[in-house]
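Weekly sync, protein design subgroup
Attendees: M.S., D.O., the rotation student, P.L. (late)

Item 1: inverse folding check
M.S. brought a backbone from last month's batch and wanted to see whether the design step gives back something sensible before we order anything. D.O. pointed out we never logged the input encoding, so this time it goes straight into the notes. Structure tokens as presented (251 positions):
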């Protein structure tokens, strides 16, 4: 079936990141709605600060700070991604079909980040809600230490789908300093993993509705059977203090 839209293709082979990013911004400014990047190899800052509703497909591995400060576009990465994806992102969606690195969603205040496989350390650090925007990160695999560190708002969901081995879904210091937002983790959590001022509570019907809708969207984007995801129960983490370490720093 013929496509009813034109895809602008940009070959990133041997292209300096500044040159590549300028080409992307020029294309968006001219009104291009579908851009495909070929042979991406570690170029940084792709789509940083870009606004609008353009779809950007990336073939290859983008460098750090993919989609930082982005407001609206959809990015689809047909491979892995490096660190600091969705740094201070305002709106839009980033879908990564492999693993992603550390410090994803730093200060993120809107939009969605979907990662099919594992993520690194300090994912969701300083995430926050801004006005009516609720940022969302869903990872299909496991996460490293400090998942949800100093989280102030938004939603983190960790699915731990590759759980054939008896390994923890996250590393240590889970939700350390968390004082807002909510974290859902599929499977068990050990108490010694969890940071100060965080509680594990039972899910309510409203939580099940939220999870059902968000995970179905994630599974549709990444071609995963959503029925398999719901075969294990989820744990819900919420802050029980607005100042979990206040007494350490102030009188």
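Designed sequence read out in the meeting:
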């Amino acid at each position: 079936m013929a496509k009813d839209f034109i895809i602008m293709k940009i070959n990133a082979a041997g292209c300096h990141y500044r040159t590549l990013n300028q080409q992307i911004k020029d294309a968006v400014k001219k009104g291009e709605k579908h851009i495909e990047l070929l042979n991406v190899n570690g170029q940084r800052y792709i789509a940083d600060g870009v606004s609008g509703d353009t779809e950007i497909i990336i073939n290859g591995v983008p460098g750090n700070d993919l989609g930082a400060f982005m407001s609206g576009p959809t990015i689809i990465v047909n491979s892995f991604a490096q660190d600091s994806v969705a740094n201070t992102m305002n709106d839009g969606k980033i879908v990564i079909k492999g693993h992603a690195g550390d410090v994803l969603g730093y200060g993120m205040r809107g939009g969605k980040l979907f990662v099919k496989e594992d993520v690194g350390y300090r994912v969701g650090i300083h995430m926050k809600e801004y006005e009516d925007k609720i940022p969302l990160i869903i990872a299909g695999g496991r996460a490293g230490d400090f998942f949800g560190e100093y989280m102030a708002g938004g939603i983190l969901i960790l699915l731990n789908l590759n759980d054939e081995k008896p390994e923890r879904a996250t590393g240590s210091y889970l939700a350390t300093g968390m004082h807002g937002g909510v974290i859902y983790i599929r499977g068990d959590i050990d108490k010694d993993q969890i940071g100060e001022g965080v509680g594990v509570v039972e899910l309510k019907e409203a939580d099940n509705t939220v999870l059902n809708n968000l995970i179905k969207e994630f599974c549709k984007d990444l071609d995963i059977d959503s029925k398999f995801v719901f075969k294990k129960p989820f744990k819900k983490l919420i802050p029980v203090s607005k100042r979990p370490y206040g007494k350490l720093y102030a009188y």
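Discussion: The chain has four helices and eleven strands. The domain at 98-249 is CATH 2.160.20.60 (Pectate Lyase C-like).
Action: P.L. to compare against the previous round before Friday.
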